[in-house]
């Protein structure tokens, strides 16, 4: 079978039509997917589907239904973990992703998971009143269209991986490399 449009855009055509998470092979079109699932697919893959684009059952299962379950560690948006944090994770929903992306200027994808330490950083730096959080959830319909516009994708290829900032060790290594380069002159 031919690869689906999502597989082509993500450069993962070898994963199209796998029967690992689904028993059947085939395609879904944009009309076969609900608007909320379409929004999740677009945010999680970083691609937009036109009218004639297709998605195979495997990619639909991975990016729409099982995405949250497949996230096994904290997405580490603040680059604070030395090793993977895998316990007590909390998933980010669409409203939280939109709010956090706007607040921190970083991309948060619905379905990513945060550990308690990252949640503490978020809750400590963002003073969100309970009524403000409730109002944000009630206003989710108006934010749906805004969500795609507010989240800008730096790498439209693979969006399931987070590109962290340069670590302290990497910065030190680059500084010593530059210092030794400058002393050689």
List the helices and strands and how they pair.
Elements: H1 5-9, E1 27-29, H2 35-45, E2 54-56, H3 57-65, H4 67-70, E3 90-91, H5 94-104, E4 113-114, H6 116-125, H7 130-138, H8 140-150, H9 168-183
Helix pairs in contact: 5-8
Organism: Pandion haliaetus
Protein name: AL14E protein
Biased composition (Polar residues): 176-185
Give a short summary of the structure.
With 185 residues, the chain is mainly α. The chain has helices at residues 5-9, 35-45, 57-65, 67-70, 94-104, 116-125, 130-138, 140-150, 168-183; strands spanning 27-29, 54-56, 90-91, 113-114. Residues 176-185 have a biased composition (Polar residues).
β-strand number: 4
Based on CA atoms alone, the radius of gyration comes out at: 19 Å
| DSSP summary: helix tally | 9
Biggest sheet strand line-up: 1-2
What's the SSE pattern?
A: HEHEHHEHEHHHH
Structural class computed from helices and strand pairing? mainly alpha
């Amino acid at each position: 079978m031919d690869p689906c449009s999502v597989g082509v855009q993500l450069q993962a055509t070898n994963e199209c039509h796998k029967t690992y998470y689904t028993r059947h092979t085939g395609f879904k079109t944009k009309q076969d997917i609900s608007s909320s699932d379409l929004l999740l697919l677009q945010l999680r893959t970083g691609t937009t589907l036109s009218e004639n684009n297709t998605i195979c059952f495997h990619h639909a299962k991975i990016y729409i239904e099982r995405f949250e379950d497949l996230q096994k560690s904290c997405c580490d948006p603040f680059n604070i973990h030395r090793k993977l944090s895998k316990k007590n994770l909390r998933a980010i929903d669409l409203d939280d992703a939109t709010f956090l992306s706007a607040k921190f200027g970083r991309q948060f994808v619905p379905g990513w998971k945060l550990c308690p330490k990252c949640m503490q950083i978020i809750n400590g730096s963002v003073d969100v009143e309970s009524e403000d959080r409730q109002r944000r959830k009630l206003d989710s319909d108006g934010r749906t269209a805004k969500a795609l516009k507010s989240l800008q994708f730096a790498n439209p290829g693979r969006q399931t991986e987070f590109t962290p900032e340069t670590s302290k060790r990497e910065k030190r290594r680059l500084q010593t490399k530059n210092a030794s380069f400058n002393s050689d002159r």
